[in-house]
Structures are given as C-alpha cells and as structure tokens.
Amino acid sequence: MNFKSVKEILTAIKNKDVSVIELTSNYLDKIKERDDELNCFITLTEEFALDKARKIDEEIAKNKVRALSGLPIAQKDIFCTKNIKTSCGSKMLDNFVSPYNATVIEKLNNAGTIMLGKTNMDEFAMGSSNETSFYGPVKNPWDTEYVPGGSSGGSASAVAARISPCSTGTDTGGSIRQPASLCGICGLKPTYGRVSRYGMIAFASSLDQAGIFTTDALDAAILLKEISGYDEKDSTSSSVEVPDYHSYCLSDTNYNYTVGIPEEFVKDLNDDVKKVFYDSVKVLEKIGCKIKTINLKYTSLGVSAYQVVAPAECSSNLSRFDGVRYGHRSDNSSDLENLYRESRSEGFGKEVKRRILVGTYALSAGYYDAYYLKAQKVRNLIANDFRDAFDQVDLIIGPTTPDKAFKIGEKMNDPIAMYLSDVYTVSTNLAGLPAMSIPMGFKENMPLGLQIIGNHFDEKNILKISHLYQQETDWHKREPGK
Amino acid sequence: MWETVIGLEIHVQLSTESKLFSSASTDFGADQNTQASVIDLAMPGVLPVLNKNAVDMAVKFGLAVDAKIARKSIFARKNYFYPDLPKGYQISQYELPIVFDGKLDIYVDGTKKSVGITRAHLEEDAGKSIHDLYEAESAIDLNRAGTPLIEIVSEPDMRSSKEAVTYLKKIHSIVKSLGISDGNMQEGSFRCDANISLRKPGDEFGTRAEIKNINSFKFVESAINYEVIRQKDILESGESVIQETRLYDPKKDETRPMRSKEEANDYRYFPDPDLLPVEISQEKIDKIKLTLPELPDDKKDRYKNNYGLKEDDAEILSLNSNLSTFFDESIKESDSNPQLVANFILSELVGLCNKHNIDISVATIKPSHISQLMNYIAQGKISSKQAKDILNELWTGKLDIDEIIRSKNIEQVSDTGILMKEAQKILEKHPKEVQDYKNGKDKLMGFFVGQIMKEMKGKANPKVLNEILNKLLKE
Amino acid sequence: MDRKTIDKLTHLSKLSIPENDVDELIINLENILKLIGEIDAAPTEGMEPMAHPLDFNQPLREDKPIKDINRSENQNDTSKTKDGYYIVPKIID
Asked: Which of B133, B97, B134 is nearest to B117 (CA)?
C-alpha cells in the first residue's frame, strides 16, 4: 500500500479499493517502524484510530461518504483533543487530558479523518528546531542528524517520512513553513483569522494560526477548506467566505500572475540557495508569471518586532499554567508562592522561561511604550510595506529559510542565531498574511523551500500557483531514502 | 481645618444570565465549580466571547449618568497571580473604557452637589477563595469567576461621609431602576471601595488610603468616619499617611491594613489580543436610550410636580426603587392625597419593615392593602390612628382589612345623627365647661372631643365630630 | 539587565531560576534586548499600534446560559480537587 497523496487515499476509500481499517493499520505500522528513530509522535492513538476506522468503514458500506472519510492524519500536540493527552511538548502538561476538542479537531473529526496520534513539537510552540520539546528532539527524515525545523517538527517529519499522509501544525513566526522547507514538503499558514484558534493552546494570540502539512498543493487545498471558517467561539476568526480551493486550483481561469521578489529576501543568500531559488523563478516564468523586483524595506525589523510581541503575549498566555487546576504541580508546594514558582519552574523549559521573562519585561511599567507599543507600531510599518507591494504584484516569493536544515544541537546555545533564521517568515505573521512553503530543490541532499506569500484571504492563488509549479517540477514527489 | 477628600469605586455585578466572556450561568448559590465552564477554568486553548447584554447594560448605565459612551472601547489584560483568577490575568478595560465623563447630582442637607464620574468599565469578577473550610488548605470555587461587573469610578469630589453615602445610595438606586443589577450588597453584587485623604483647603491632594470591599451603606459611613479621624491624628502629630489598602472591620468599627494579595504589583496592562475593539454605533445608543426606565431624578421630579410631594419625601422615595415601586402601586388604586399616602408609608410601613429587618418588596403587606386603608381614611370609615393599628394586624399575617375592622369593631362612626346625640349628651353633662368655652376658653374643644371619644371608644370620626361640636357650641 | 531586574521579573512571572543559570540567563537576555532594541530607530511617528492584523469588530454573543457543564469531566485531575473545590495551601489573608 503506497498512496502518494490525500487525493489518492480519498478516491481509493470512496471507490472501496481499500478499507479504512487496512489503510489505518498500515500507517500505524509504518509509524511503529520508524518513530523510535524519528520521534515524531508524543502520543500514538492506536485504539482510537482503529475504532474510528471501523466506524467509517461501516459508513462507507452504507455509501455515506464525508469530505475526508477515512483520511489518516497526525495532529500537532498543541490542539486540545477530548479525553486524549495534550502536552504541547511540555512537562507542564505531561499529565493533561483535555475535557474538550479544539475546533480544528472537531472539524477534521466530523469530516471523517482518522487521528493517528499527537505529534511532537517545540515546547509551547517556541522554537525553530523541535529541540526544546520535553519529549526529546524530532529527527529530519532526510538525515536524522539534522533538525526537521520547528515548532511543528513532528508534524512535518511525519509527512516527509510518509508515515502520515498529512498533518496539522501551527505557525506563529514560521512554525509551519520553516519545517516544511527543511523537510521538503508543503506547509500552509492561512490568513490570520481564516482558521479558528479555539482549542489551540495559545502562544502569541495575535500571530498564531493553524495550518496544514501535505505532500502537494492540491492536498493542501482540500484540507484547507475543511478547517477554515468563522467560529463563534473565536472572536478573532473571520467570516470571509471560504472558497472551494481545490476547484479553483484545477480551473482554467486566467492566471497570469505578477510575482514580486523582495530584494531584502535575496540579498543575503548563499550561492547554493540562490541558485536553487532562481531555478524556481525560471519555472514560474515558464508557466507565464511576470517577475518583478520589489522592496519590503522593513524586513530587517521583523525579527526584532516579533521577539517583542510574541514573548509579551506568551508571558500573559502562559500565566494560566500555575499548577492549580490542571497540569504539573510541584511536590514542593508548602505555600501558595512556592506552589506557583516551583510548579512553573519545574514545568517549563529554558526557552519558555526566557521568553516569559523577556515578555514580562516588554510589558512592564516604564518599558511598555519603548517595547510592546513600539513593536505594535512597527507591525503597521511592515503591513504597509506589504500593502504597497500588493499594489504592484499578486504574490510575493522568496526562499522560506536562509539555508538548509542545521544539525541537531548546532544552534541550541545561540538563541539569537535561531531567531534570525526566521527572518523571511516572521513578517507575514506580523501582517497576518497567508503564506505557503513548497519544495523547490536541494542543497547537499537536504530540501529547500520556496515561500509564496499572498494578500489577505488570497490562499486560493497561493495554492493555484503552487499547483501549477508542481505540474512542471517533481521536487514535491521526492521522498527521503529513495 | 482639614478637608476630607473622598473618591468611590463601586463594583456592580450585572444581572446578565450568562457570564461576561463565557456562557456559563450566573445563578447564585450553585454547588462549587458547577457553573465554571472550560473558559472560566482557563483551560489551555479557550477564548473569550463578549456578552451582548453586558455591553447594553453598561451603555444604559452611561446614559443614566449623563456620560459619554465610547464609540470604540478596548478590553485589556490586568496581569497578576491569585488562585481565584484562573487565567493569571483579569480581562478588564484600561485606556478606552466603555463609559466616561459622567456626573451625578446629589442633594445633601438641601444643597445640590455634582459628583463627577470619571469612568465606568466592564470587567470580569474573580472566583471565591474560602479559607475556613479545611485545616491546611484553602478552597477555590470558580462559579463567580467571569461574572460581569461594571466598575464605576468617581472623581474625588466628595467631602464628607454623608455625601459619599448619598452618592452611593443614588448609584444603587440607579442600577436597580435600570434593571442591570439586583444591587444585593449582602450577596456581593454591589461592593464599594473608598479612597480617603485629608488636606488643608487649597492644598494639593493628600496621600490616600483605600478601604476595600465595604458591603453596606452604614459601614461605608462608619469606615469613612473612622478613617478621617485616624488620618487626622496621624497628620496632626506631624507624621505622614501611608498609601495603603485597608479593610473595614464592622465588629471593632475600625480600619486595618490589608495583607494585600496584589501587593505593589505591576499589572502590565495591554490590549487583550483575543478580543477585538467593541464598536458602539450612535444608532445602538439611541435604541438603548429609548428603553431606559424612569431614573431617580425624573422620579423625584414626578413626585414633586405631579403628586405635590415635599422635597425630602420625594428624595427619599426616589432613591429607593423598591420603596418607590410600592408607593406608585399604592397611589394607583387610591384616591387619597399622595402626600398622605407617602406619609403613611414612610412613617408607619417603613418603620415596621426596619424594625423587623425586612425589605418592603418582600413584606406580606402589599400596595393594595395601603390603598384600601387610605381610601377608608378618606371615606371617614377609619381614623389614621386606627389605620396604624390595622397595619400592625396586617403585619402579623391577618390580611383581610374588612375582617379586622369587623372583628375589632373599630369602624369609625361618621353618622351625623349618632354623633349629634353623643355630643349633646356630653355637653349636657358638662354645662360649666360649655359656658367657659363660650366665654373664650377655646382649648376646651379638645376636652369635649376627648370625652366623646372615650364614650365612643375612639370610634367617632374626628372631622365630623368637630363640625357638629362647632355647630352645637355656637348656639 | 541585572540581578535585581531578574528578581523583579521572576517575581512578577512566578518563576525561579536556579542560581547556576542566572549568569547565563543575564547574558542571553542582554543579547535578546540588544536584538529587539533595533526597533527603537524605526520611523513610527504618527503610527497607530497594530493590535490586530485585520480590521474587524468584536462579535457579540447572545446572553443565553448553557446548563451542561460537567464538573467531573472538567476536574479529571482529581489530585487537585476536594469535594469539587480546587485546593491550594492555606492562604492567610
């Protein structure tokens, strides 16, 4: 059994070429075979998956087919799943079983998907390498000495290793796109507000967005439709209409895209990445795109502004983890103050603590104006940059990451270097724009990703141009070890 | 020599059915944590959604105190740790509150005074911590967590405990009249913090102490009075007042420093990213304005202008919405002079209620009883003294006025024929006094009335009797 | 970024940093502050702070209470509760 895409799986199930239980068991076997090495999963939900598979098979037998009937999927362990452990990659929630489902989980469950398990991630989504997880690092399936990227490292690695056909992730500063780039798969971050955040453990509320990993753009289009839409439980979710992304990708509409390349995204590239990138640009020209050089002059401020806003919001969002009602409570709780301090200090890792302290500082009396308020103004500068750019172009492209994956342990002692590697992705979060990373080639046998950024709610054109690119190239078909 | 400066912060629990940001019920008295939803428990991943009714109620309040309604207001997070605050922050409002720049006119000793209302904002209430349930532990109940509050902040415009209490009572009456809060101070739906400082007139404001969570009008008055003396003693001995939070102890009638759970805290306010700006259109404001019920000031004007009530009586009635409702109902079915009805209610019925510590709204005596009594007085069927006696009977639970009159045989006699006969009888018995009266001793009228009343066991209608006596004595 | 500031921050955020880690932490934080300090020079005069990427207003929820709260489901971590209350070490107020 070797399905290459979500589409293939859905068709096969609908046509009864394969039963859901067979398919599910197959993926569970693959996971058990590979995951000791890769460490993609924190929790494997075997019984749950098989039960659901049987249920869906019964439905199929009665010709009841839902949008994603029988599709196995891996869920990032940041989405609350009812009665199933949700750890967010942290010791703080190692014992946490959520009493409710996140909206994304509900939607995918209702669409007929089969959850294979909860994937490993950087602790509380803070990181770009999946090395801060309480459950150990995730390995990049292309070379297990290398990081898969983060924070959605487990979700990306599982799809890249083909032990799950698709997975969910979250992206606050690049946490879907960067691992997609380093793992050679597609990773889509929708417009802020496109997908409900209810039940998605909050890191930075004004930046977080749920998204998906797939092997190609058409699969992403299918899944995006199922998770998008207004949710009354999330005040920041949008009621902008959800188009049929898949149909749009396949339609014959005239698509002569004008594509912008920001100077700031290419000026510091090393030669290898530059070559791979410009080869991609040639493909886009070949399919009819007009290429234009543009400027996003405040790109360099993105990382700094991000490293104020995200820690500030997270320092407040993580206050609820106090050991009182759920989660880790220290044995050292002689009084209330100790209960708080010891539970939190034992429960959180170094990176999380660092960000909480930075965030607390940025919001504190005397510093609020210079840091948090200022950073929020810089967001407007950056958003205006994009606004001006989208007056001239339909889509913006560049490499997703400055380089291929780095080795596990290489950047752990250099948080600043780690932050700076987010330079091409953070601005889109600050401006709330949608973006996707698709495979565009290799450097030293390790994948590189092409990032395509669209205007607000223009996921359909990001997906379409990606689909067209994927009809001319086969980077997205390459698998590690083959 | 010293001028007292008082500002009040009032926390009013809004009487919505569900909480400010979650749909859990706000009913009072439920078992612990059975009205705490995943949102109220601050589970990972939950998000707040704003209650429409709470916004409407805040707008109503703003309109009632002549304030400006913010066309765009923002919710902010107030960050601090305490077990009754599950998120580790309270969602409140900081820079752009929903209501601001209002005022309230109060009348103290006949003088009108305008108290500024700086702002009123929406925020969520915390849960409850109970420290005396278990030996080594404190127990947390989050049923109350998330209940909507408006915090009403006054300018430091009040200069005496009397002004403060008058202002407080008026706000209380307004929120009750508007139907936005039950104002139940015992249950904690109306709580007052008082900021008190002293200064020499003309000087800058002095250092203030904050007295927190006072839950009765009487305690507010006592707390302020105590605090003024305490601060005066400190200042006059050359020391400085410490800026601190204090609690009022009603048993000892004193304030003492509070071991503050918030300490010198930096709350790190910032706009809550999970909530969007609340836009309130002029159209919405106009629509809500149309639904405003009669407010205390308008009520007072109505009582003075339509019913001719005295200033003081109009003021008292207008400030207590239960009382004014009772009064309005009583007037409806009565033909009596409203001032007489007011007198009767205020002196007799309110006295009974206070004596037995029962609110007039739950007394067994209803407005219809009062109307009936007042009508009988007007008809001359009973005297006002008899009405008072009947009222006491009613209070004990015997609720049929006619039955009481029958059983006690207290029906007043107004029949001129009968009264004429009785009067003549008495006058014939006291010829000397009759002569003295005709010679100018007018006071003897009282004697004659008294004698006849005694003879008739108090049942003579005094008005009719007086007319008859006057007629007889002129002859 | 000095020890005093660290103490203030850890107090506000209820964290405790092991003595051995404090020096490294100070260096890390100083570097981070240097990085984020770059926004200082950004030309933001007259700009509004962006609280939300998109220009929407707060939706309002009907005031209808739900009555299906399942306390035992919510309190599935029974190590932290007693008789339906959440339990913490006794607080002296």
From this structure: B97
Interchain pair A79, B89: CB under 8 A: no
Closest chain A residue to the Cα of B77, Cα to Cα:
A316
Answer whether residue A293 is part of any domain: no
Q: Flag whether A151 is in a domain.
A: yes
Lowest mean pLDDT among A77-81, A239-243, A330-334, B69-73: A330-334
Question: Which is nearest to B295 in space by CA: B326, B331, B321, B327?
Answer: B321
- Residue numbers of the domain that contains A174: 6-258+399-408+425-477
Do A148 and A140 form a contact (C-beta atoms < 8 A)? Answer: yes
- Record the tokens describing residue B335, joined without a space: 């033909």
With beta carbons less than 8 A apart as the criterion, state whether A312 and B270 touch. yes
Question: Domain for residue A459, yes or no?
Answer: yes
Contacts of A96 in chain B (CB under 8 A): 44
Inter-chain touch B270–A316, beta carbons under 8 Å: yes
Tracing tokens 């209330």 back to the chain, one arrives at: A336
* pLDDT tens readout for residues A237-294: 999 999 999 999 999 876 789 999 999 999 999 999 999 999 999 999 999 999 999 9
How many CA atoms, within 13 angstroms, populate the side-chain half-sphere of residue A70? 30
DSSP-derived letter for residue C70 is -
Pairwise CA distance, residues A11 & A4, whole Å: 12
Q: Is the pLDDT of residue B474 over 60?
A: yes
User: Which residues of A are tagged catalytic?
Assistant: 76, 151, 175
Phi, psi of B322 (to 5 degrees): -65, -40
Nearest Cα to Cα of residue A430 among A313, A315, A277: A313
| Location of each CATH 1.10.10.410 domain in chain B | 416-474
Classified as helix, coil or strand, B349 is: helix
H or E element, residue A323? none
Q: Taking CB atoms and an 8 Å limit, are B38 and A99 in contact across chains?
A: yes
- Whether residue A301 lies within 8 A of chain C, CB to CB, comes out as yes
Secondary element (H or E) of residue B25: none
Residue A50 inside a domain? The answer is yes
CATH code of the domain containing A37: 3.90.1300.10
- Total of domains in chain A: 1
Q: Which residue, A151, A248, A242, A235, is CA-closest to A194?
A: A242
Q: Please name which of A442, A464, B340 lies closest in space to residue B348, comparing C-alpha atoms.
A: B340
C20-47 per-residue burial string, b: 16 or more CB within 10 A, e: under 16: eeeeebbebbeebbebbeebeebebeeb
Would you state the pLDDT for residue A414? Answer: 84
- Say what the ipTM of the complex is: 0.96
Selection from B376, B366, B367, B303 nearest residue B336 by Cα: B376
CB contact under 8 A, C15 and A238: no
Its sign, for the CA torsion B59, B214, B225, B208, is negative
Q: How many residues does chain A have?
A: 482
C30 Cβ partners below 8 Å, 6+ apart? C1
- CA quadruple A353, A355, A358, A363: dihedral positive or negative? negative
Tell me the chain A residues in contact with residue C13 when contact means C-beta distances shorter than 8 Å.
315, 319, 344, 356-357, 360
pTM: 0.90
Q: How far A39 CA lies from chain C's nearest CA (Å)?
A: 27
Cα B290 → chain centroid: 24
**Distance separating alpha carbons of residues A40 and A17, to the nearest angstrom:** 29
> Hey, of A197, A324, A344, which one would you mutate to test binding to chain B, going by the most B CBs within 10 A of its CB?
A324
Question: Dihedral, CA atoms, A149, A154, A160, A163, nearest 10 degrees?
Answer: 170
Q: Considering CB atoms only, which of C74, C82, C85 is closest to B41? A: C74
Size of interface B-C (CB pairs under 8 A): 125
Contact C39 A333 (CB under 8 A): no
Q: What would the CATH number be for the domain defined by B416-474?
A: 1.10.10.410
Strand B3-13 with B190-199, pairing: antiparallel
